[in-house]
Amino acid sequence: MVRTCYILSDDGAIFWRNISDGGLSVGEPTGWIRPEPALGRLRRIELGLGVLLVVILPTRSVLWLSGHGHRTLERAIVIVGAGLALVVVDTLLRRQIRSRGFVETADAIVVTRGALVRATTVIPYGRIQFLSVSAGPVARYLGLATLRVGSASTRGRESIRGLRTDDAALLRHRLEERARTTMRSL
Questions:
Q1: Which DSSP symbol is given to 12?
Q2: Are 16 and 27 spatial neighbours (Cβ–Cβ below 8 Å)?
Q3: Is residue 25 exposed (0-12), middle (13-18) or buried (19+ Cβ within 10 Å)?
Q4: Which of 37, 15, 54, 136 is CA-nearest to residue 93?
Q5: 3-state secondary structure string, 90-155?
Q6: pLDDT tens figures, 73-100
Q7: Under a CB-based contact definition with an 8 Å cutoff, are residues 177 and 125 in contact?
Q8: What is the 8-class DSSP label of residue 33?
């Protein structure tokens, strides 16, 4: 019988130890699958709509209602402020997207995310309770989907964003089969 123990190192790498009657082997998951580049476009569209609704429209409304909407200085402040906010958030989004990924191991799926706070979640196939694929209107237009993996843990679920729609469906099916096979063997 082989048992697997996952170890997270300080630099965010995941190692595993396969413990069997014959000995111990140590390795690191290879082949991290990263999000599609279109996820960056999706996040920028969401960001642009958010900035439009939260920053630009309310600021323009306040300036117009106060009778100062015609001044060039106020317009410049709004445009420069929105531009700076977009640049800062876009930089953070790029880092966040680069930090996302997942890998399928022999007995678990490992999901990593987080640009500022790094988080890595290991979900054994036997603990998967539900799998769902979702996509909003912009994501559908870009051909992207999100796979949500629900597990029997206190954290609840993990999301894998930025998958192509057909890849998300295939991954869902593959994880479903692995979970079913693992549950049968218990």
A1: S
A2: yes
A3: exposed
A4: 37
A5: HHHHHHHHHHCEEEECCCEEEEEECCCCCEEEEEEHHHEEEEEEECCHHHHHHCEEEEEEEECCCC
A6: 777 777 788 778 778 888 888 898 988 9
A7: no
A8: B
Q: How far is the C-alpha of 174 from the C-alpha of 177, rounded, in Å?
A: 5
DSSP-derived 3-state class of residue 68 = coil
> Whose CA is closest to 77, among 62, 90, 65, 88?
62
The backbone torsions φ and ψ at residue 148, rounded to the nearest 5 degrees and listed phi first, read -105, 130
Q: What contacts 74, CB < 8 A, 6 or more positions away?
A: 63, 68
d(CA 143, CA 66): 44
The whole-angstrom separation of Cα 140 and Cα 119 is 27
pLDDT in tens, 129-153: 999 999 999 999 999 999 999 987 7
- For the CA atoms of 102, 85, 54, 75, the dihedral, rounded to the nearest 10 degrees, stands at -160
In single-letter form, the type of residue at position 4 comes to T
Predicted model pTM: 0.70
The Cα 106–Cα 100 span in angstroms is 20
Helix axes 57-65, 72-99, angle to 10 degrees: 170
